[in-house]
Amino acid sequence: MYAKFDTTAPTPRTRRHRRIAAAVLVTLAALAVIAVVTAPDGSAEPTGFACEEPTGPDLFAGSVPGDTTSGPAAIFGFNHAYYVDRSAEQARRFLTPDSVIAAGDRLQTGIDAVPADTRHCGSISSLSSFGDAARWKVTVGEFRPGIEPWIAEQTITTRTLDGATLISEITATPA
Which one, of 141, 146, 139, lies nearest residue 72 by Cα? Predict the structure, then answer.
């Protein structure tokens, strides 16, 4: 009438099989949690990525491809080549021939050190103009998956040469 249960003590072999099964289940559960936490959410941008709209007529913000028609456009173009195209050759198109940034393989080495799925956003405002040159206050946010955003403050000097505006110098702005 009552169910009969096996009440014999487990053998060392049975205990080992149970431990292995438990370890496999725990590992699968941990992998499932990791997969859920790190899975893309369907957007092309990491969590926390936001590129704010400019708040004034002399402020520029974004991560657009850019061109050589103005200082902000050249800065956007350089950053797009760096973070999106991941190409020193493309980035050099936005640099003056005498820029030390373009020298050697350091530019590509820097690009390669940034994870490929990093997103960026630049914020640009004018500091001063003199002759064919202009200085810009630039804030670049790097948004790498899984870590807090990194913000770089820079001063970038652009020069207009033969109708093209190019970057001649990038310096870190002291905190």
Answer: 139
